[in-house]
Amino acid sequence: MEFLAKMKGSTKSPPRVSGTEVLLAWLGSFVGIAAVAFISEKVVQASGVVLVIGSFGASAVLIYGAIKSPLAQPRNLVGGHLLSAVIGVAAFKLFHGIPWLAASIGVATAIAVMHVTKTLHPPGGATALIAVVGGDAIHSLGFTYVLVPVGAGVAIMLLVALIFNNIPKHRRYPEFWW
Q1: How far is CA 7 from CA 11, 12, 122, 135, in A?
Q2: Into how many domains does the chain fold?
Protein backbone atom coordinates (compact mmCIF):
# COMPACT_ATOMS: atom_id res chain seq x y z
CA MET A 1 0.00 0.00 0.00
CA GLU A 2 2.83 2.40 0.85
CA PHE A 3 4.29 1.84 -2.62
CA LEU A 4 1.01 2.83 -4.31
CA ALA A 5 0.53 5.79 -1.96
CA LYS A 6 3.73 7.32 -3.36
CA MET A 7 2.03 7.62 -6.74
CA LYS A 8 -0.55 10.12 -5.43
CA GLY A 9 1.99 12.95 -5.56
CA SER A 10 2.91 15.29 -2.78
CA THR A 11 2.44 18.81 -4.15
CA LYS A 12 -0.07 20.77 -6.15
CA SER A 13 0.29 21.46 -9.84
CA PRO A 14 2.32 24.61 -10.56
CA PRO A 15 0.36 27.71 -11.58
CA ARG A 16 -0.31 28.46 -15.23
CA VAL A 17 2.20 30.83 -16.86
CA SER A 18 1.07 34.18 -18.19
CA GLY A 19 -0.06 34.72 -21.74
CA THR A 20 3.08 36.79 -22.30
CA GLU A 21 5.27 33.84 -21.28
CA VAL A 22 3.31 31.53 -23.58
CA LEU A 23 3.82 33.94 -26.47
CA LEU A 24 7.52 34.37 -25.71
CA ALA A 25 8.00 30.58 -25.52
CA TRP A 26 6.18 30.20 -28.84
CA LEU A 27 8.20 32.94 -30.53
CA GLY A 28 11.53 31.72 -29.16
CA SER A 29 10.82 28.15 -30.21
CA PHE A 30 9.72 29.30 -33.63
CA VAL A 31 12.84 31.41 -34.19
CA GLY A 32 15.22 28.78 -32.77
CA ILE A 33 13.85 25.84 -34.75
CA ALA A 34 13.39 28.02 -37.85
CA ALA A 35 17.04 29.06 -37.70
CA VAL A 36 18.25 25.46 -37.50
CA ALA A 37 15.81 24.27 -40.19
CA PHE A 38 16.56 27.19 -42.51
CA ILE A 39 20.33 26.68 -42.27
CA SER A 40 19.77 22.96 -42.76
CA GLU A 41 17.69 23.48 -45.87
CA LYS A 42 19.75 26.24 -47.46
CA VAL A 43 23.29 25.30 -46.47
CA VAL A 44 23.77 21.84 -45.00
CA GLN A 45 21.38 19.56 -46.90
CA ALA A 46 23.22 20.16 -50.16
CA SER A 47 26.02 18.08 -48.64
CA GLY A 48 23.56 15.29 -47.79
CA VAL A 49 23.72 15.88 -44.04
CA VAL A 50 20.75 16.64 -41.79
CA LEU A 51 20.88 19.41 -39.20
CA VAL A 52 17.46 18.98 -37.59
CA ILE A 53 16.96 16.09 -35.19
CA GLY A 54 13.92 15.33 -33.06
CA SER A 55 15.59 15.99 -29.73
CA PHE A 56 15.95 19.67 -30.66
CA GLY A 57 12.18 20.03 -30.29
CA ALA A 58 12.45 18.96 -26.66
CA SER A 59 15.40 21.29 -26.11
CA ALA A 60 13.29 24.14 -27.47
CA VAL A 61 10.71 23.48 -24.75
CA LEU A 62 13.41 23.95 -22.13
CA ILE A 63 15.53 26.79 -23.50
CA TYR A 64 12.61 28.95 -24.67
CA GLY A 65 9.76 27.80 -22.44
CA ALA A 66 11.41 26.89 -19.12
CA ILE A 67 14.43 29.17 -19.12
CA LYS A 68 14.95 29.13 -15.35
CA SER A 69 15.11 25.35 -15.15
CA PRO A 70 18.56 23.98 -14.29
CA LEU A 71 18.03 21.51 -17.15
CA ALA A 72 17.74 24.41 -19.64
CA GLN A 73 21.05 26.11 -18.89
CA PRO A 74 23.86 26.25 -21.47
CA ARG A 75 26.05 23.74 -19.63
CA ASN A 76 23.21 21.23 -19.70
CA LEU A 77 22.09 22.00 -23.24
CA VAL A 78 25.55 21.73 -24.80
CA GLY A 79 27.11 19.13 -22.53
CA GLY A 80 24.01 16.95 -22.39
CA HIS A 81 23.63 16.79 -26.16
CA LEU A 82 27.33 16.38 -27.01
CA LEU A 83 28.06 13.70 -24.41
CA SER A 84 24.89 11.83 -25.32
CA ALA A 85 25.75 11.98 -29.02
CA VAL A 86 29.19 10.46 -28.39
CA ILE A 87 27.66 7.74 -26.22
CA GLY A 88 24.89 7.01 -28.70
CA VAL A 89 27.32 6.63 -31.61
CA ALA A 90 29.61 4.42 -29.51
CA ALA A 91 26.67 2.24 -28.44
CA PHE A 92 25.62 1.82 -32.07
CA LYS A 93 29.15 0.95 -33.19
CA LEU A 94 29.61 -1.58 -30.39
CA PHE A 95 26.16 -3.21 -30.42
CA HIS A 96 24.60 -2.43 -33.82
CA GLY A 97 23.90 -6.11 -34.35
CA ILE A 98 21.59 -6.06 -31.33
CA PRO A 99 19.52 -2.87 -31.78
CA TRP A 100 17.50 -3.16 -28.55
CA LEU A 101 20.72 -3.48 -26.56
CA ALA A 102 22.45 -0.60 -28.37
CA ALA A 103 19.43 1.64 -27.76
CA SER A 104 19.06 0.81 -24.09
CA ILE A 105 22.79 1.00 -23.32
CA GLY A 106 23.08 4.29 -25.22
CA VAL A 107 20.23 6.02 -23.38
CA ALA A 108 21.01 4.59 -19.93
CA THR A 109 24.71 5.43 -20.20
CA ALA A 110 23.93 8.92 -21.48
CA ILE A 111 21.71 9.55 -18.45
CA ALA A 112 24.39 8.28 -16.05
CA VAL A 113 27.14 10.37 -17.67
CA MET A 114 24.96 13.49 -17.73
CA HIS A 115 24.29 13.03 -14.01
CA VAL A 116 27.97 12.55 -13.19
CA THR A 117 29.03 15.58 -15.25
CA LYS A 118 26.17 17.82 -14.04
CA THR A 119 24.92 18.22 -17.61
CA LEU A 120 21.51 16.52 -17.28
CA HIS A 121 19.38 17.63 -20.23
CA PRO A 122 16.45 15.26 -20.93
CA PRO A 123 16.60 15.73 -24.73
CA GLY A 124 20.12 14.27 -24.52
CA GLY A 125 18.54 10.87 -24.00
CA ALA A 126 16.77 11.29 -27.33
CA THR A 127 20.02 12.42 -28.96
CA ALA A 128 21.68 9.17 -27.85
CA LEU A 129 18.69 7.16 -29.05
CA ILE A 130 18.65 8.90 -32.46
CA ALA A 131 22.30 7.89 -32.94
CA VAL A 132 21.20 4.27 -32.59
CA VAL A 133 17.82 4.22 -34.37
CA GLY A 134 18.30 7.15 -36.77
CA GLY A 135 18.79 5.02 -39.85
CA ASP A 136 21.44 4.98 -42.54
CA ALA A 137 21.65 8.77 -42.89
CA ILE A 138 22.60 9.12 -39.22
CA HIS A 139 24.69 5.92 -39.00
CA SER A 140 26.81 6.93 -41.99
CA LEU A 141 27.93 10.04 -40.10
CA GLY A 142 29.66 8.04 -37.37
CA PHE A 143 31.18 10.37 -34.80
CA THR A 144 30.63 13.31 -37.16
CA TYR A 145 27.06 13.14 -35.78
CA VAL A 146 28.45 14.76 -32.63
CA LEU A 147 29.54 17.85 -34.59
CA VAL A 148 26.83 17.93 -37.29
CA PRO A 149 23.93 17.83 -36.65
CA VAL A 150 24.24 17.85 -32.84
CA GLY A 151 26.95 20.42 -32.12
CA ALA A 152 25.99 22.80 -34.90
CA GLY A 153 22.27 22.62 -34.14
CA VAL A 154 22.80 23.14 -30.42
CA ALA A 155 25.09 26.13 -31.09
CA ILE A 156 22.46 27.78 -33.29
CA MET A 157 19.68 27.18 -30.77
CA LEU A 158 21.83 28.47 -27.89
CA LEU A 159 22.73 31.63 -29.79
CA VAL A 160 19.05 32.29 -30.48
CA ALA A 161 18.19 31.60 -26.81
CA LEU A 162 20.88 34.00 -25.57
CA ILE A 163 19.61 36.78 -27.81
CA PHE A 164 15.87 36.15 -27.72
CA ASN A 165 15.47 35.38 -24.01
CA ASN A 166 17.26 38.59 -23.00
CA ILE A 167 15.23 41.01 -25.15
CA PRO A 168 12.28 41.31 -22.70
CA LYS A 169 13.28 43.23 -19.57
CA HIS A 170 11.69 40.66 -17.26
CA ARG A 171 13.56 37.66 -18.69
CA ARG A 172 17.17 36.64 -18.18
CA TYR A 173 19.00 33.68 -19.69
CA PRO A 174 21.09 31.90 -18.61
CA GLU A 175 20.78 31.49 -14.87
CA PHE A 176 24.32 30.04 -14.85
CA TRP A 177 26.96 28.88 -17.32
CA TRP A 178 29.04 26.40 -15.36
Answers
A1: 11, 13, 22, 37
A2: 1
